[in-house]
Structure formats: structure tokens, C-alpha cells
Write a structure and sequence with these properties.
The protein has about 100 residues and is α+β, with helices and mostly antiparallel strands. The protein has a single domain, classed as Transcriptional coactivator/pterin dehydratase (Gyrase A, domain 2), CATH 3.30.1360. It is built from three helices and four strands; from the N terminus they run αββαββα. It has helices spanning about 5-15, 35-50, 80-95; strands at about 20, 25-30, 55-60, 65-70. The chain starts with 5 loop residues before the first helix and ends with a helix.
Length: about 100
């Protein structure tokens, strides 16, 4: 897996709603109605994440899930991160 260029990252951000860069990683904060929905998002996403074999850095407090995506093997953001961002948005849309 290769690291995306700055231009490729900017292009990807143009197609990812609500995602930004934070510390060289793709970043998004999801807010749900309550803890059950936030935890449900993580549980539903975990199945898809495991199939992709590409795991996020995420943090949950009550109704909020903060997600950072990077590919350690590539030394930065890769195509896998962009794909996972899309999967997470798809799962979140079902719960928001």
C-alpha cells in the first residue's frame, strides 16, 4: 500500500463529507442521539472493518465517536483510509 500525495488527499477530502486532516491523518467526529447509537455504530462498523483488515483509531465518549485514519505500513494516508472513511459514513448514515 502506498501513501497518497497531498493532491490525492485533497481530492479525496473533496468527496468525503465532513472529513478533514488532523495530525497527518483523516479525521471525523460523529455525533449520535445517545451512547447506544454511538456504540451501535462502532459495533456495526467493526464487522466491515474486520473484513477490510484495516482498523481505525477511534475514541468514544457518550454520543460522540472520533475517528482518525492512517495506514501505518504506508507511513500516512492511503487509498484504504479513503475507502474506510466511505464505509464509516455509510454505516453512520443508518444510525443518524
Amino acid at each position: 500500500m502506498t501513501k497518497l500525495t497531498t493532491d490525492e488527499i485533497q481530492q479525496a477530502l473533496g468527496s468525503l463529507r465532513g472529513w478533514s486532516l488532523d495530525g497527518g491523518k483523516l479525521y471525523k467526529e460523529y455525533r449520535f442521539a445517545d451512547f447506544v447509537h454511538a456504540f451501535g455504530f462502532m459495533a456495526m462498523a467493526a464487522v466491515r472493518i474486520e473484513v477490510m483488515n484495516h482498523h481505525p483509531e477511534w475514541f468514544n465518549v457518550y454520543h460522540t465517536v472520533k475517528v482518525h485514519l492512517t495506514t501505518h505500513d504506508a507511513g500516512g494516508i492511503s487509498k484504504k483510509d479513503v475507502e474506510l472513511a466511505g464505509v464509516l459514513d455509510e454505516v453512520a448514515a443508518k444510525l443518524q
